[in-house]
Amino acid sequence: MQIRSTATAEDRDVFVSTVDVAFGHFSATPDENGGGVWWAALEPDRCLLAFDADGRPVGTTGSYAFELTLPGELTAPAAGITAVGVVPTHRRRGVLTAMMRHQLGELRARGEFLSVLLATSAEIYGRFGYGPATHTQRLTVPRHRAAFAAPRAGGADSGGTGSGSTDRGSVEVLRRAECGDVLEAVYDRYRRTQPGALSRPPRWWALGAGQPPVAQAPRYIALHRDAAGVPDGYASYARNGSELTVDEIVAVDDTVYTALAGFALGHDLVTEVLIKHFPPEHPLRWRLADFNAGQIGNHTDWLWVRLLDVPRALTARAWSTDGELVLDVTDPFLGEHDRYLLTVRDGKADCAPTTRAPDLSLDVRDLGSLYLGGTTPSTLVRAGHVRAHHAEAAALADAFFRTDRIPHCLHWF
């Protein structure tokens, strides 16, 4: 089997055609500007094609160059793995394993230390070292039960930044085609403060690659502006019969999110409002007069994370607790096993090989799940995936990996 990058326009056509065969679908035709399709933003030098002994294309995988927001409002480059597929005639012959190993080697050769993906099947990517690091869900609220309760906290009208604060901004309704540049700017402001968020490079917006509102499908945009008139949030939505479906709400804080959600929940001519990608543990349900009116559904994994260079990854994020933690990390897919001393001072870490006795032993996939702070080490200890070597180890690790904000990712790729 041969695996090589896609270097020409012809290679890209073969790549897209092979992905279509692998997934059993037909890709749409791009518009006159070469956009409007999911693959418009593919980066040819980061895409791989696998060929069998007869020279037939049998597998694909690619990656995008993203930035990932880490705990502490820090950002780091991350390879976003995409279009992973094997044609039906060549499955279970080692094609996928060979491609993933080849790809990880290329990413390391580029100097990249983080890789992320969206998993079509939770059973596939763990064996390649990826662990689920963020989750998402849907919130459905019947229109007639959508009233907000008055905030009960003292001083709630003083203009703070929490959900109970009074919104002093305004909402304007636009069409998606009228405000692409504004959406891009607001999203970029939001993603730099939200752990787990990925960048949306300008070419994605320009080419309409992805799902709404990146894709230029007909949508209404509820654009929120602060008291000074500066855009600081938006909701992308469409009415489908009696249901108002919100693709995503992007907001710089809880007050703006609540204002945009309130706009959607107060929309006439609908009986139900569905908010996709509702962040776990978001306080919006507590704002409803009837807490049970907001029904959570489709809770699922979203962004999976893999560490390609453990010391670089661990020193790239901020930490909540000063001290020392020894991690014994196994990477079965790449055949690696190392032990690291993580030393944190003033929220910044140093990570170096050590021979000290470990506090925790874990698979690199589990370290990926812990990395953004969305899962606690003690949870994985209780699940039997992580080994705590002494009675205080799990609690110590929980303190280290704790974050102020639960990670969440909106971006589809």
From TrEMBL:
Keyword Heme assigned: no
Residues annotated for acetyl-CoA binding in this entry: 84-86, 92-97
Entry annotated with the keyword Acyltransferase: yes
Domain N-acetyltransferase: residue ranges: 1-154
Active site residues according to the UniProt entry: 125 (proton donor), 413 (proton acceptor)
GO terms for biological process, alphabetical: aminoglycoside antibiotic catabolic process
Coiled coil: none
PROSITE patterns per the UniProt record, alphabetical: GNAT
Alphabetized UniProt keyword annotations: Acyltransferase, Transferase
GO MF: aminoglycoside N-acetyltransferase activity
Assigned protein family: Belongs to the acetyltransferase Eis family.
Subunit structure: Homohexamer; trimer of dimers.
PANTHER family for this protein: N-ACETYLTRANSFERASE EIS
The protein's name in its UniProt record: GNAT family N-acetyltransferase
Taxonomic source organism: Streptacidiphilus pinicola
